């Protein structure tokens, strides 16, 4: 291709991918080399980390033993109207420059997507968001995807596409020049799913079918060492938590210090049903985008348990920042978010929970980006009844004034409490219960009942985007929450006497539906409604 001055210019294209929210989208890396002063321009809305790749790419190419063109280089990241972030474009930019320099042939570039960060010596480092990017490559019909060696396990979770792991820039060059063959990497996805207890039915055998307190680094597997048989007494609270787990309901526990609220909350994860195939895939995408997947943990196979400290900020809880990232509510997607000492959280932080609790999704809008993160989680909150913690206690006297108690409880707004399905009191445990020899139910026994109730709900909502009772909309409630006459009378009385809002009325019905499922009843009976109403204590 001739330029205006009679010289020659060369254009090359490489397929890569970027991530918006938890979904990958195709990015074409275009490189044009023409005669002129040695300039390296990069366009297509690259952010700082992408612009800095110019120096990494230039040095990595030289240190790998290849000549870097001393001409006018223009790199375009298309689509040009979407902001590009991250370091995954280092390797595709380098390959496009080498192809434009005639060092490698770009004939087969169209068959592959390329991802990877370059170090100065030509080593290829892992990047975040590999799983969504590989899914994107498969959707666009790519034959294979070239990924950093450290990300090979994560990438291999997607079937139907070759995963070619590489360690050095030179390996990629030799692959496209025909000197080297890179063996596709494969892993036993079903074994990984089964080892984590992920439920996989016959129609969902792999990713090609589509369909202790949590830390800041990864989802926490608290189920291996904890069990409800360790909790003395609190049969009323255990029953409420069983109902919450069976229907995916949010729950708030109030009680004095040392009554066992945290022990109860940390063990809920042990009675929740295993992740389904689609849940495991979507949860893994969130952790991949957040850069929290480790080399030996390519798939999230346990329900996440997140327990942020009460000093957390709004962006830390729901996501955001200058460069939008998923927050705790998204990291708890398909799992559990435990907020201990609920009134100690800042009021404005708690208020941002209202929308994700209602919609199950977080939408973050910034001047340069709009992203969406999933946030379908079970909220478990614990709180003291007053600042000293002993209001209403039968043994210890409360030292708080009435105004102090009112201010303390006012930290949690009515609209937020309205979105929590179950409210219970957790009283102090007596000496007799602590020293008693009676054997409490184990988590496995409770989990069997929870899973039986969930099976009923899966059958009930087949073909819908609802997977448990807590996700029912107003139309679903009318269809699936049929009550006998006596039950309807009890609910009417409760609404009048307790002044329940329309939202609270719907949530009582959902809880009653779950209680009926645990009893194996098709119809909601009076005892189911009566029990559901008593879970509005706060």
Question: How would you describe the overall organization of this protein?
Answer:
The protein is α/β, with parallel strands linked by helices. 36% of the residues lie in helices and 16% in strands. It is built from 22 helices and 18 strands. The strands form six sheets. Strands 11-14-17-10-18 form a five-stranded parallel β-sheet. Strands 1-2-4-3 form a four-stranded mixed β-sheet. It has a three-stranded parallel β-sheet with strand order 5-8-9, with helices on both faces. A hairpin with a 2-residue loop joins β1 and β2. Mean pLDDT is 89; it is low at 2-7 and 201-218.
Entry keywords:
single chain, 538 residues, alpha/beta, 4-stranded mixed sheet
- Uncertain spans, ≥5 residues at pLDDT below 50? 2-7, 201-218
| Number of beta strands | 18
Helix content: 25-40%
Largest sheet: 5 strands, parallel
Tally of helical runs: 22
Computed over alpha carbons, the radius of gyration is: 28 Å
Instruction: Please tell me what the overall shape is.
Output: elongated
Class from secondary-structure proportions: alpha/beta
TL;DR?
The protein is α/β, with parallel strands linked by helices. It contains 22 helices and 18 strands.
